[in-house]
What does this fold into?
Amino acid sequence: MKKILILIAAAALCACGGRYGAGIPAEYEQLLDGALTGCPRADSLRTLLRETPREERGAMAYLIAWMPQGDRDTMRLDLLRENVTYALRARAEFPWAQALPDSVFLNDVLPYAVVDEVRDSWRRDFYERFAPRVKGCADIRAALDTVNRILPSAVGVEYNTLREKTNQSPSESMRQGMASCTGLSILLVDALRSVGIPARFAGTASWHDDRGNHSWTEVRLDDGWHFTEFYQPSALDRAWFLADAGQAVPGERKYAIYAVSFRPTGDWFPMVWNEESRDIHAEDVSQSYRDVYAAYADQAAQAGTHTTVTFRMFRDKRHATESGDRIAANVDVFCGAEQMGGGRTAGPLQDMNDALKFLLEKNRTYTFRYENARGELTEVKAKVGDEPITVTGYME
It folds into this structure.
């Protein structure tokens, strides 16, 4: 009789699931135990798990297990519910989301946030904005192009340095109609995730020549991760910063490129707007950018479509011959309205052969922009032909 009762109890446990309810993988139970230990609202989160529909419970458990402690203690539970429901709705609706491995869906589609922005209700809003527009797309690439093409007008946000803060949430950026590169990247990541496209935030604390920082978006297609930006429909692995990214320094915190991960990686993302934080997990992806740029430069050299343009900066036209006459300055290069790259010129103490170089397409006219000694925007135009050329700027 005792043996029968044990079997009945075991069967009941299997039917009802473990401590957190049916539908949660067994390996999550230990993670949840650790996550909820010491949490001031552990009971509320356990109730949330039990009340979550069985088919959504595994996704909810993933978020609770890996979310930052601050979110676990304070984030609105209705946002978690809405996020899980609409993420799984997108997965059920779109074939590219159905084809994702669970590990990719959970880490790069399901998360309710990108970095440390305010946690707000974007998932349902973006699903309703973008799902109808990608419904007829043949594949994930077509859906990606569609979202990126319509995103600026759909959310009414443009790049503007007058934005209130760097790490704006979608609602904060849409309220102002403006955002930094960080805010734009958050918008793009969230918009892509809303229709089941895996996306993540990437960036660097500083370019190799200390010209500043930048952030952008990575998307995962069948062949792996690729980078793109807000304003760049159909453009993958080609951006104005490619040459700079190609000189990222793996393992060097300041000069490496990192991509954010929701689950722990053993490393963290260097947020220049919140330098003390170690809450956002990340992986060093510098080498992939070095490889992409090397392949691009090699392809351009073999095709004969590009040539090297060297840019030098001097004090003035009377002092433009000696190494000591040179000035270190930031220079950006454009072809029409499109930025093609940027860099910092060599200063007076650097070798005379050390100069800022750009790999630019032949037979086009380029504009080199910089601020002179008076802080005025200065432009130098140059027509690039078949042969390498040197362009000179002056600070006075």
